Amino acid sequence: MVNVQGSLRKPPAADAAPSVIPCARLLASEFAARAAQHDRDASFPFENFTQLADAGLLALTVSAALGGGGANASEAARVINIIGKADPSTALVLSMHYIQHLVMARSARWPGRLSRKLARETVEGVSLINALRVEPDLGSPSRGGLPATTARKTETGWRLSGRKIYSTGAPILKWYAVWAKTDEPDVRVGLFLVPAGLPGTRIVETWDHLGLRASGSHDVVFDDVVFPLDHEIDVRKPDEWGIPDFTQATIHAIFVAAIYDGIARAARDWLVEFLKSRVPSNLGASLATLPRAQEIVGRIEARLAVNARLIESFAGDFDDGVELSASESNIIKLTVTNNAVAVVEDALSLTSNHGLTRANPLERHYRDVLCGRVHTPQDDATRLNAGRLALGI
């Protein structure tokens, strides 16, 4: 276990960021050693988050003024990419947590008292937050519509009822940012901060997925759950949500891209070792000597080079305050994730049955990377929006 609390929990210096990367790589080597078993069992990697907390990496995107790492989107994306290469389920939970703290730091709508409280808890221990948005009937709110989950205002607090699906990190979350509507005559919709574990809250272990099996993305059910009135984060009239939260949408696209690129890099590394060590008797040399293998590996390298440039430059522009568009951020996610899928498929084309046997990690990488195609924002919505913008419709 690596502990770099001292280097992370102070105001950032010019040389602060590099210390984070070796720490992430050392932890990633341990996470990678456990990833296959967690995938097979669909068990949640609690120990990974204990180690991340001990190393100060859970608080990486918490403001330095509040004791965190003060990392920007570029630094956080590098860490997510490293962890995603080792265990993408862990990286997914971590990225959602990072997003919330970056949004807290930049959003005037987050109540300062609550954001400071969550920052302090994250600096001090294993305390994670994620937004719970998707529902059985609504699907992803990015496609429009009001949630069925309802917050009813009473004299003693909000009372919340509803069901959220695909709640990534559910087994370990301490806080939920719940997307819900009010029962007021003039309905409002938005986010409410709900502590995990309150009476009436239960986790239904529904997550039995093709990929990212250790992410604990179960259902969370709220049955008349009472929480304080001042835990209203950002609740508006429905038509005021026509323009999405740009900060959250952009960072989400960067971090999701970084996860799936990490998976592709893990597949590339395994493939290179396989080609160099596999010596068929009829060839008398390693598969790496074949021109076909060299050409396909070169194609993989080209896709990964494009991914690295896209993630690095876009995250850097975001950090530098360059004016960006939500459409462009979604296109970055689309391009990187599709490149990542193509990388793993290319690797499979060179490995025959070896690539699809469960004894080898390429099979797991393939299942994990396919999740990029259904991860919000989805490709069809991205292309449709880009087309409408180009046509002025």
UniProtKB/TrEMBL annotation:
Which terms does the record give in the GO molecular function aspect? flavin adenine dinucleotide binding; oxidoreductase activity, acting on the CH-CH group of donors
Matching entries from InterPro entries are given as: Acyl-CoA_DH_C (IPR013107), Acyl-CoA_Oxase/DH_mid-dom (IPR006091), Acyl-CoA_Oxase/DH_mid-dom_sf (IPR046373), AcylCo_DH-like_C (IPR036250), AcylCoA_DH/ox_N (IPR013786), AcylCoA_DH/ox_N_sf (IPR037069), AcylCoA_DH/oxidase_NM_dom_sf (IPR009100), Mito_Isobutyryl-CoADH (IPR052547)
The keyword Oxidoreductase is assigned to this record: yes
Source organism superkingdom: Bacteria
Cite the Acyl-CoA dehydrogenase C-terminal domain residue spans from the record.
256-376
Report domain Acyl-CoA dehydrogenase/oxidase N-terminal positions.
25-98
What are the protein's UniProt keywords? Flavoprotein, Oxidoreductase
Query: Does this entry carry the keyword Flavoprotein?
Result: yes
In terms of Pfam families, this protein maps to: Acyl-CoA_dh_2, Acyl-CoA_dh_M, Acyl-CoA_dh_N
Acyl-CoA oxidase/dehydrogenase middle domain location: 135-225
Against PANTHER family, the record matches this protein to: ISOBUTYRYL-COA DEHYDROGENASE, ISOBUTYRYL-COA DEHYDROGENASE, MITOCHONDRIAL
- Recorded protein name is Acyl-CoA dehydrogenase
